[in-house]
Write a structure and sequence with these properties.
This is DUF5319 domain-containing protein. The protein has 136 residues and is mainly α. It has helices at residues 34-54, 77-90, 110-132, and strands spanning 61-65, 72-76, 107-108. Strand 1 (61-65) and strand 2 (72-76) form a beta hairpin.
Length: 136
């Protein structure tokens, strides 16, 4: 099983992207710093929590506002996870393009997912705080 989508044109001489510039031809990028690497690992851990909480209620993934094109990009859980793992292993983000005809109502932002997870956590620990406190 692959963590990332398989290139359907891999090895195909008629690959429509064959003429595009290969990022591997560039001088080696600086590897991720320890802080950047830690941030990506934390994003992966958060992603697991968000998926566990939100997928059962119909959320398909996260939407991210692209800094380059100023368009929203919709990522299913597995694709986003694969992109983050690729960033960890290669030190560079994947080339991306907007999803084809996504249903925006089925995607949430990182901030929404974080707030939702925080709300669930607070609700679950609410009774615990009262039980461990002193009684008047």
């Amino acid at each position: 099983m692959h963590d990332e989508p398989i290139d359907p044109f891999n090895g195909d001489p008629a690959d429509p992207a064959a003429g595009l510039h290969d990022p591997g031809d560039d001088a080696a990028l600086d590897p991720l710093t320890d802080v950047e690497r830690q941030d990506v690992l934390e994003d992966l851990a958060d992603l697991e929590i968000y998926q566990a909480l939100l997928a059962p209620i119909g959320v398909r993934g996260l939407v991210i506002e692209c800094e380059d094109c100023r368009e929203p990009h919709y990522f299913d859980w597995d694709l986003l996870r694969g992109n983050l793992r690729h960033l960890l292993s290669s030190g560079r983000p994947r080339v991306h393009e907007p999803a084809y005809d996504p249903d925006p109502d089925r995607y949430v932002t990182w901030d929404y997912a974080r707030g939702y997870a925080d709300g669930v956590h607070d609700t679950l620990t609410e009774g615990t705080d009262e039980e461990s406190g002193t009684e008047s």
